[in-house]
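Following up on my earlier thread - several people asked me to post the actual chain instead of describing it. Fair enough. Here it is, all 216 residues.
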Amino acid sequence: MSDPNEADGPDGPSIQPSDELEAALAEAVAAVDERKGGKGAATSADPGAPQGAAEGDPEDVAALKDQLLRLHADFENLRRRTLREKEDAFRYGHENLVKDLLPTVDNLERAVDHARQSGGGDVEGLLQGVELVLRELQGVFSRHGVEEIEAEGAAFDPAIHEAMAQAPDDTVPANTVVQVYQRGYQLRDHLIRPARVVVSKPSTEGGAKPEEPASD
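Reply from S.P.:
Thanks for posting it. Predicted structure:
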């Protein structure tokens, strides 16, 4: 069902003035006409009145012009905001679907990891099936603009990463993601959930203590 305040134009859908806005515009126009009529009547009744009296009060004209400009600006702001909200609803309308599917992806990833660790020919078929489903789900995500957040080996970014712990590691710079607990995802440029990660820290921080020799 189309919105009665919208119309399709050469540049796409446009927002038509609301009843309240049209009424305000009509009121402002009527006020201008009334002032013009009053000034004209006064001039006819008094032929000796100054010639400039029929032109209207400059302050009244300026005030009405300002009111019309404000109404036009309000309408433009409403139009832009409405179009932006519609665009956001279209771009991010599948967010709840993605959130519902994420636990399934997590479980499938755990099943694949478990099957790999168990080994043996008995689980080979199960492993292949689970991997197939996982690839299909990842394909669905990709088609809907869902991307996995790059985490392991990247510098920690609080905007897309959630630090769960720190681990001493001198092989990488401090605050580098060295392990991923749970993968993060984003829908285009919109964060769905951050990646839960382990972040590196210098192993010499605070001074490393040598191990005590075992007592007899």
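Confidence is low (pLDDT under 50) at residues 10-14, 41-45, 49-54, 207-216. That should answer part of your original question.
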